Amino acid sequence: MKYIEEFNDPELARRLLDEIRATVTRPWAMMEVCGGQTHSIIRHGIDQLLPEEVELIHGPGCPVCVTPLEMIDKALAIAARPNVVFCSFGDMLRVPGTDRDLFRVKGEGGDVRVVYSPLDALQIARREPDKEVVFFGIGFETTAPANAMTVHEARRQGIRNFSLLVSHVRVPPAVEAIMTAPDCRVQAFLAAGHVCSVMGTAEYPELAERHRVPIVVTGFEPLDILEGVRRTVRQLERGEHRVENAYPRAVREAGNPSALRMIEEVFEVTDRAWRGIGMIPDSGWRLSRAFRAYDAEHRFDVGDVRTVESPECRSGEVLQGLLKPHECAAFGATCTPRTPLGATMVSSEGACAAYYLYRRLEVTPVG
User: Fold this and answer.
1) What is the pLDDT of residues 248-263, one digit of tens each?
2) Do residues 160 and 125 touch, judged by C-beta distance below 8 A?
3) What is residue 284's three-state secondary structure?
4) Beta pairing partners, 58
5) CA separation (Å) from 150 to 11, 192, 264, 274?
6) Are 35 and 349 in contact (CB under 8 A)?
7) Which partner for 92 in 88, 111, 266, 311 could form a disulfide, CB atoms 3.0-4.6 Å apart?
8) Looking at the domain that runs over 64-169+257-300, which CATH code has it been given?
9) 58 phi and psi, to 5 degrees?
10) What's the angle, vertex CA 32, arms to CA 307 and CA 55, rounded to 5?
11) CATH number of the domain at 2-59+172-245, out of 3.40.50.720, 3.40.50.11750, 1.10.1660.10, 3.40.630.30?
């Protein structure tokens, strides 16, 4: 219970809020990159407790939400094929493609299975050698080591009926894209602690220096986030732009060396499209040439997929921090968790899902 109760202390939260109020002298806008942080902020009402000068902007830190529509449609096409077992985490099943989702494919007879680890999918491939087993490998840097290790194990064990549909994205290039956008309002970042626990912080100082923004690594509990905000406000008020680690119980500067070695062996950096945002150079990973035989895109030849986004969905603006979910006219009306227009409404880390779940339902249509 230590790391549940210790970081939910109301008295310490009040002291941190008092210090933030005493420090801030002008409006500041900071972005929390991680969708898990967004849910914690909305669940606990942290954005409503902060002084009005401090604005939290929700960033593109939900891996399900930024998985491009093209990749979703490729997953649907593969999952619908005979003799394929398509494995995924549960929060991908309701993510809408152009005209259906994985639940629909399952209802139409596709063998779609929810698993809790890519290794579960590998076990299915071992038990059912007459089936082609595909795991939908999405995520930020956090989930990349497990997916890399699974492909590594498949090759080591000689399991040839397993493949990975890869849609991994990387945070630092997304920060670069946000800061170079012409309508950017972000003045600081709360960096995702779980990403940095894998990758470390080495990629961030150059970003902080070039764009003159503080970057503070934070966790996910209320006190983690408030401490991150406190340190960020202090830097902003002092005119500083450094990388600070406010999550030392999980994050080291060098990250996790074993995980980094596994990623480097199995993956290579590539350009990646982000749903609702567009192409960001060097922002993703794909399987390296040595492991290309386990790449589901190549194995099933799904390169000719054509996609159509919903014209009503404004999740791209939400992911870029340009729009709060309840400011979208479709939010809570034509777009709900049962009838989603975009992934941000159904992902467990989506901003729209957080606003809907925690009853931030006041719809404020904007032009």
Assistant:
1) 999 999 999 999 999 9
2) no
3) strand
4) 32
5) 44, 24, 14, 24
6) yes
7) 88
8) 3.40.50.11740
9) -80, 125
10) 110
11) 3.40.50.11750
